[in-house]
Amino acid sequence: MDLVSESLGPLERVDGRWALGDAGRPGRAWVEFRPDGLHAIARDSAAEVVPWSRIMLGFRITLGGRYPNRGAYTQMGVLGGLPGPFKGRGGGYLHMTVRHPYEDQQLFFDRHPRWYRTKDILVLQSVMTRLVEDGEAHRLGDADWTARVVAHLSTFDGWATTGGLRRAAAEAVEAAGPPSTGAGPS
């Protein structure tokens, strides 16, 4: 696979696993997609696990700050992707609502020193949310299946409208086929 299909926005394949954030550099925070759920690895190497079965109502990705005024970026979120002294600085959050107990949760990740296209973030959110709505979020823990989805989404060049993003997500899930492991929700 080429580099384009090895990453999509902040999602990147590292050592055979998919992670949101810069998992390739030491001392960084990232969120790993594993068969049993999301593993948030903190800068101090502590890990928090969110099982796939707890996630409800989809996902949202923000860069720079936990709650930007508009859209997905704060000022630092934009500067972190540009050349100069702020390149690669800052991070982002994966927002979700979980059950048992019901609460909003944010998992932090450090950003890569590359620019993330807004369209990539939006289409990634769209496919992740679709999987939650379909009760299939556990598919993200299958690295080979996620690779097929990312390869399909990396070719998305349509308008980033709600309908366009939903169509792209549906097409990517269909094109990826069934999970490689056949594992169900954990």
Automatic annotation (TrEMBL):
What superkingdom does the record give? Bacteria
Q: What is this protein called?
A: Uncharacterized protein
Taxonomic source organism = Streptomyces longisporus
